[in-house]
Amino acid sequence: MRTLKLVAVSAGLSSPSSTRLLADRLLQAARYRLAEQEYAVDVEVVELRDLAVDIAKNFVTGFPSEKLQETLDKVTGADGVIAVTPVFTASYSGLFKSFFDLLDPTALTGTPVLLGATGGTARHSLVLDHALRPLFAYLRAFVAPTAVYAASEDWGTGGDEYTEGLPNRINRAGAEFAELIAGRPERAAAEDEVVPFEQQLAGLADLRLD
Prior knowledge:
alpha/beta; Rossmann fold; single chain; 43% helix; seven-stranded mixed sheet
């Protein structure tokens, strides 16, 4: 039985967080669909608020901490990534953008990605299309057709025969995401490790001092 690894990235700042809750629901929906297809699934949720200081230091020093590097490796090595952000000033949060800025532009090439966002009002739902999709298109990810936005009033509503409530949108997005993952070929053997340019420069500097 093939084992798949799913990683959800949540940029929520509070605890508890509606952003984390949406990430959990999307992860659950995708996992359920994959289990129906008899896949074993390992899941993990990354809380970016726990890495905020490490992310900021990376921009200053050019080097990730051990904890941050482990997280980056988990995301780039996943069979599928769920990315969920709160909406600030009509776009994704700075913490969310900063984390994905640290990835190599080709690290998510072909990786299935499911997008989600949370906000106080439904007016911000267009963030999915005008901000999130372009970001992951640049990263060459394979973005699921349905992205999920959850406004404050969406929680606790199930929808009716005329409307599609949040649970239905989550289930539909999870099913589409699962199909993308199941249809993706297994990853090829890892290539030789590439040493970042900053580390190469640091190594040269150490040689001059010897």
